[in-house]
Every structure is written in structure tokens, then in C-alpha cells.
């Protein structure tokens, strides 16, 4: 079984981004970029499936500018077998990403697509769902445990009420949540081996996909600064304020 | 500019330092040891055999990667970086260069994988860089060697499985009468006399050793008889690049703590970073440290290219270690009273970095060597 893992290059989670002075976007020139942490978890899970003998090949795919190759090299160093980059300088929105991934699925014929539930830059949480819709495949989102057996995936999902378990027939799209696993460090021997692993570069045109953005950003602004809190003398006073001022208790 | 591999190695090292070292460094200092499991994990990731080829269990990386990784690890914990530094160079480097097939199989493979720790015992109570003054003797008795003597300031002496010991085999031959021996530390007669109490780097053991009639077979001789002095000198470049990288890494960590503090701490109505005296102190520290960093990477690049690297390595070690102490001191100054408390890591980092001006040849020895190289070109 082949697993496809889409990985996105995003601003590193340690970086505090700032809105550009003219409100036209975020100032991310010269900031550290990394693999989307949720995609790192998806990559780890795919590699573990291969190590368990559930999967035979892990293919990482990234979409965007040529520097996304760095993100793919990270996936290869973690243990993915090969990588595909769809290179474009067009700003990619979730629907375009889902269409491009659908074209990659047609090329690669994976049995499972496993990806982060969302990217930590725009936090859309749409791509996996759209991809499943476009492919007509079942989807299981926010996975915190995955078991593959007999052509089915049993997926435990984190939902507001607690944990939910669903079964989906393969091929399927699974999006992963934070608590699924703890991604490994890429070991030095594996980093050295990653150099020799194949990395194919394609274009949206070659895949017959028009990635033009359908949504337009109007303006970016900083969230309002948090105001200082107040200190209260007793729990009684706190309850009183929550009831009568904040209106959050009745 | 660094290559994809170098960047990935640096990223792994930084993540490991941030998650597995930095949060625990203060506790390890108090305990006086780095947990064995942490060293094993460091080994599994390839950091304890970085430049050893894969056929001998290593990662097969270059010295630029080594310097970058050591900077990152030292930023997490100085003591761990010392253990890593000694293991990679001199210990692994010597075995790779002078070891026989059998010696490499027995020692280099487990060392490079980080399954065991190695030590390097040249220094004696009365002989440091002046290695021709060694008194430890190795005497041949039949087909056995018997070693008698004592060694001082031996990093990892109490946690190592293998100790490379230098001993005089021909007292009349001066430097050419020294030989190197691979001593298993479980040999009868190998004794840790004392684990020294130090100013810093407390989680890395520094030992006084006694060799009381340690008996070894012919297979313990590293290189040829009388080749010891040359063997001891052969890993000097990589050893000094290592200490330079450690210095840079520790100082960078201290500077980062100082910067974070200066941005948050308010005085006279604004962050102290907005006061020029503080901003300029940190700017100077940053510039000096970047120069040290580049000098260190330059020496590593020369070594990778097979060019003569001794002078560059000495300069890198001298400049980086001296700069690092000043930067760490500036970091303490930036935190003021808090910098002097153990609540913040800068005091510990300053203690840890101080030895970089001393071990692997003091700053004065580096100057002596640089001057000699300059003189040799006249």
C-alpha cells in the first residue's frame, strides 16, 4: 500500500508574525520556515505504518515555491521514500491545493492520503475535506489513533464531546490531530541518505490544474491588544462579577 | 550559505537541544551527570559519530555539519557538548585514522553509534600541552604491555568504556618515545582516583586517573610504537574547531536569554532594550559572536577541503572562547541582579563557557601556535 503525505511549508511555530504596516499581508520576509507541525505528525504516522509493514511506500508531496523542496527534504530525512513538488509561485488556496492533490492522487494511486488537519499559517482546515469530496473518497478527520486492517481504517477522532471512532473503507483521506504521535527527530544517517532519494518537480499546468485564487484578501490587521485583568478579593466576588458583569454565569 | 544536509542536521540538533537538553541542564548540573539515556539518544541520532563514515557506524557528515551541530547542542547544555566534542574528536578521529580493522570493529563502531563513551588521556599532573614531559610508562613484558602512571583532567574518565592513553615506551627518544594505547576502562588497574569538582561543566565528569599496572595485549597499541605524539597531535584541528563551536553555541544561548529579557524588562517606562546602553552592549556581543561563528565555520570548511587548517582552528578557538566569555558576561550584566541568580540560565552558561579558554590548549597556547605558523611563513 502506498501512502501520500502532503506537507506544507509554513512560518515556524516559534516565530511571532507581524502584520505589514500597509495591512496588505504579513511580514514573513527572512523568517524561519518549517514543515507544518500537523503534517510532521502525518509524516511520522505514515513512516510508522511502513515500519509496521502496513504500508510499502511513503510519498511526500508539497505545493508551492521551489524552496518547498527544503520541506520535502525534511520529510525524506524523517523516512519518506520519495517526494514530489508541484512548483508554482501562485498563492495557493485550499480548493486549488485539493485540486492539485487530486491530480497527484491520479498519478500516484495511493491507498491512503494522510495529512495535517490544518496548516498553522492560515488555519483553514479545509484541504483534506475538499480532497475527499473531489475524489469521492471517505474521510476521517482529526485522527488521534489510526488502525489499518483488511482494507479499512479505524480512526479515533477528537471531537468537542470526547472521542469518536469511525471506520472508513480504503482508499480514504485522513487528517491528523496533535495527539496522534510525537514525530521523531531526523537522524543524521537518514539525513545523509535523504540526499539520494528521488524528488520530482511538476507544475500545475502539467497536471492540468488552474490554481488561480478564488478568494481575495481585503485587509490584515493585528488583533486588539489584551487589556490588563483585575485582581479580586474572594471567590464570592468572582462569582458575583461573572454573573452580574460578564454575564457568563446565570 | 549551508547545504540541505547541513541545514537538516542543524535543525535536528536545535530541536534536540531545545526539547531534550535545555530544560534539564540546570538539574543535570546539580546532579553532576548527563543521564545515560540522553547520551544514548544523542548517539542513536548520529551526533556521537558525526564524521565517521557509515561503514564504521557513523553519520558520514562533514566538519561544517559537525561545527553547526555542536553549536546547537552547546546552546542546550555545555556539559553535553563537551562529552560530544571529546567523543567525535579526538577519540573517534584517532581511531578512524590510526586504528586497525579489528580495533575499528571493536571500538569505533560502538563509539560512533554512541553505544559507548570514549575518553582521551594525554594530560598528566605536570604535563599538559607540553606532551613531551609525560611520565606515564608502558613497559613491554613478553607479549604484554604494562602501563603505570597517572592522568589528569580526563573528560568522561568515569563514564567511558574506552580510554585512549598516551604513555612513554622509550624514555630516551623524547617525543618519538611516546605510544598510544586503547585501554578498556574495565581493565584491572584502571582507576578513577577522583571526579573533580569544577567551576562549571559539572554534568561532564573530569577525572584524575591512576593506571596501576594495567596489562594489555599487542592489540591495544594504536598506530605504531613511538607514534603516540603524532597521533595526539593529529586530531588537534578538529578538537579545536569543536571547542570553538561549543563556545559560540553557549554564548549564542546566553545572548538569546539576554535579548528576551531586555525586550520584556521595563525600566524608566520602556523595555531596557530601548535604552541605548543595553542595546549597544547586545549589538556588540552579536557582532563579535557572528565573527567568531564565521571563523569557526571557515576553519571547518578548510578541514573539509583537505587544506591546512591548524592555524585557522587555533584562531577560531582563541577568538571564539575569549569572545564567548565576554558575551556571557554581557548577558549576565543585561539581566542585572537576576543574571547573578540561578533562576536564569545565564550564570550557569557563563560558568560552563569559561573552560573553553583552557581546555584543548589554553588561549596562550593558541597564540603560541598561531605565532609559530606566522613565523614559519617568513
Percentage of residues in helical conformation of chain A: 25-40%
Largest interface: A-B, 15 and 19 residues
Low-confidence stretches of chain B: none
Order of secondary-structure elements of chain A: EEEEEHEHEHEHEEEEHEH
Number of helical elements of chain A: 6
Bulk shape of chain A: globular
Largest sheet of chain B: 4 strands, mixed
Secondary-structure blueprint:
The complex is a heterodimer of chains A (250) and B (378).
Chain A (H helix, E strand, L loop, with lengths): L1 E5 L2 E3 L6 E2 L6 E2 L5 E3 L1 H15 L5 E8 L3 H11 L3 E6 L6 H15 L3 E5 L10 H9 L3 E11 L2 E8 L2 E8 L2 E5 L11 H7 L4 E4 L32 H12 L4
Parallel strand pairs in A: 1-6, 1-8, 6-7, 7-13, 8-12, 9-12
Antiparallel strand pairs in A: 2-5, 3-4, 9-10, 10-11
Helix pairs in contact in A: 2-5, 3-4
Chain B lengths: L3 H18 L3 H7 L4 H9 L18 H14 L1 H21 L2 H12 L5 E4 L15 E5 L2 E12 L6 E7 L9 E7 L5 E6 L10 E12 L3 E2 L5 H7 L1 H29 L1 E2 L2 E2 L4 H29 L5 H26 L10 H9 L8 H14 L2
Parallel strand pairs in B: 1-4
Antiparallel strand pairs in B: 2-3, 3-7, 4-5, 5-8, 6-7, 9-10
Helix pairs in contact in B: 1-4, 4-5, 4-8, 4-9, 5-6, 5-8, 8-9, 8-10, 8-11, 9-10, 10-11, 10-12
Task: Walk me through this protein's architecture.
The complex is a heterodimer of chains A (250) and B (378). Chain A is built from six helices and 13 strands. Chain A has 250 residues and is α/β, with parallel strands linked by helices. Chain A has a nine-stranded mixed β-sheet, with helices on both faces. A two-stranded antiparallel sheet of chain A has the order 2-5. In chain A, helix 2 crosses helix 5 (188-194) and helix 3 (94-108) packs across helix 4 (127-135). Chain A is globular and about 65 Å long. The model of chain A has no long low-confidence stretch (mean pLDDT 95). Chain B is of the alpha+beta class. Helix content of chain B is 52%, strand content 16%. Chain B is built from twelve helices and ten strands. In chain B, the strands form three sheets. Chain B has a four-stranded mixed β-sheet. A four-stranded antiparallel β-sheet of chain B has the order 2-3-7-6, covered by helices on one side. Chain B has a two-stranded antiparallel sheet with strand order 9-10. In chain B, strand 2 (137-141) and strand 3 (144-155) form a beta hairpin. In chain B, helix 4 runs antiparallel to helix 5, helix 5 runs antiparallel to helix 6 (101-112) and helix 8 packs antiparallel against helix 11. Chain B is globular. The chains are: A alpha/beta (250), B alpha+beta (378). The A-B interface holds A 34, 69-70, 73-74, 77, 185-189, 191-192, 194-195 and B 4-5, 7-9, 11-12, 15-16, 44-47, 50, 54, 59-61, 65.
